[in-house]
Amino acid sequence: MFVRDYMTRHPVMAEPSMSIVEAQGIMAEMQVRHLPVVETGKRLVGLVTRQTMRIPPTELASLNVWEITRFLSNLKLEDVMVKRANVVTTQSDVALEEAAQIMIANKVGCLPVLEDDVVIGIITEIDMMAQLADLLGGNVPGVRATIRMPNKKGELAKVTGAISSQGWGIYASGGVRTPKDPDHWDCVLKVRDVPKEDLLAVLKTIEGQEVIDVR
Fold it and tell me: Per residue in 123-133, pLDDT tens?
């Protein structure tokens, strides 16, 4: 799973000279929350988001409604955008989990995807959430099970072996370290073509593991 597989290709972009009023209209129409700001050749020069286009109330407090309208209409994206040097970006061949870590570390909601400083795509937190849902089989019918297992070799094989021995198929899985318990992992599996009660009965026979949830 790489950024190139889940990014939005040819995203909506804007030029630095565009007014923020026009940009807000485009973002609303296209239902996007981030606009890469580019110059000739789609070279990235900045980034605007809904948050960066919010004008602090202190700047408008002394203005009347006509002055506020004129003030806003004169603002360009180059006045409010995050400048290129401060825009966090990624490349298309970066692993998806690495891109997610970059977003978490920098507390950003998107990463423009660049190739030689040219914008070829954008990946957002929504794209990441969609992939998480797919990874855990969120959109496919089946029985979802969460099993808590010791953090040691061979534990996952116990689960997959028990399920495959029944002729059932696993089509989605994921695992995370158990919160506040570094000695265990919580494994989530989506199993198809099996009654919930039958899956639960088989999982309960696995020694040393605990069935947390089946639904």
Answer: 999 999 988 88
